[in-house]
Amino acid sequence: MYRYRILESRHVLAFLLLASGFSTLYLYLYPLFHACAFPSPTCSGQKGLVGNEQQDTSAHAGPSLGKAPFRLLALGDPQLEGDSSLPSSAGTRLPWGLSGLGLYIQGLRKRVDLVGNDYYLAHIYRILHWWTKPTHVTVLGDLLGSQWVTDVEFERRAWRFWTRAFRGSHKPEEDVFESKTEQILGAEPDWERKIINIAGNHDIGYSGDMTTPRITRFERLFGKVNWDIWFRVPDHENKLKVVEQDGEPLELRIVILNSLNLDGPVIDTGLQQQTYDFLNRVILTSKPVESREVATILLTHLPLHKETGVCVDGPLITYHDSVYGGGIKEQNHLTHESSKGILEGIFGMSGNPEAPGRGQGRPGIILTGHDHQGCDVYHHLSPSQDSEDRRWEAKRWLDAIHIVNDSIVPGIREITVRSMMGDFGGNAGLLSAWYDEALGQWQFEYSNCMLGVQHIWWAVHILDLVALVSLLLFLVGKHSGQSSLSARVVQRPVPRRQREDRTKIE
pTM, whole model, 2 decimals? Predict the structure, then answer.
């Protein structure tokens, strides 16, 4: 019977250890199982976005572009929750009443869930950062879960953001936020640990509840809400030498825009004017639209305007009551007018063939957050309308290939990065950018990588714990069983007949 129990325990333990081993292997190598990697000119560039055109680049990548020089790990809407998500009466001491006990248990469960969620987000960031080796990282807004929290709670969540979810990283130094900052791409490797944080509505509020104190505390802990930086592409052999094309340096311009107060009414017109001034400065300091040597990557929280049905979130704007200022209370997209200002201002697209650059504008791409489901669209001017009355439209990226290939129609791709929260699969975006020397265009490629819902993270670690405890119990039980059996063998009395035989022999 004992041997049967041992054999049965071994089978159970073997199953637990195998299940634990394979599930842990998946959890810590999930990018390998999902073939997650930054798109590269040599591997995934057969059909790529080159400037504003979809082209075959397999013959043009060149030997020096085995790996894209700019690789952006894009993470959307982590939304770290805190005390506002706890049951209203949950305290830190165990109450004596049964109703209070129920609230206490709910509060304790939520606190455990918050800690687990922090480490779930940390797992995504740490594993993907290690596996894909990005040159830059951005979090596209809604870093925290509510703009209404107190300063103390805001700092507590910011501490969790930097010490748990994104441990080992930090915001850029203050001098980076200065106007017209230029750096050589890759000359400062610390950029892979500097997180470009975008302000979201749950960080600073919509325009109807965005205040100076909320902006100030966000900028102190996460970085400026409006800034830009220019990266010059170095020679692949001499990292300190800037590559030039037709006498002009190859550059990537990263623009971080607080789009939350572009539309109104606003509660603070001064903050809105700061955003307008920054937007105008970006436009005035841009290179001529004819230049193909410079590309712009716009990082902002609110997606641009789209018609209902293009993405999961349709256009929606609600307003506070007049007693609270009447400003914007909730907003899914920018208005068409604000979106037009970005497309025609920052990117200089007009569709006028007589305009500089034939109205095609500047090459680039737009990354946004906010819509947790994510979306991938192409903004373009409708080719069927008169040039004076043409309106900006958006189509899903895969449905717009025929428009992308039309060199007469100006347009640009906007990717709304799916949220990294567990309910949305723990997603991350991988954006690569490089300059195609043969085509004379900047090229952008994007892919997603998903871990799976947060329950996977919990299940694997619980299974690992059960397997470890089972292994220890098995070893202890086996050792105890063997000791007990040995003791019984040693102390067993000699039968009477055997004693009598021994006496006769003697």
Answer: 0.87
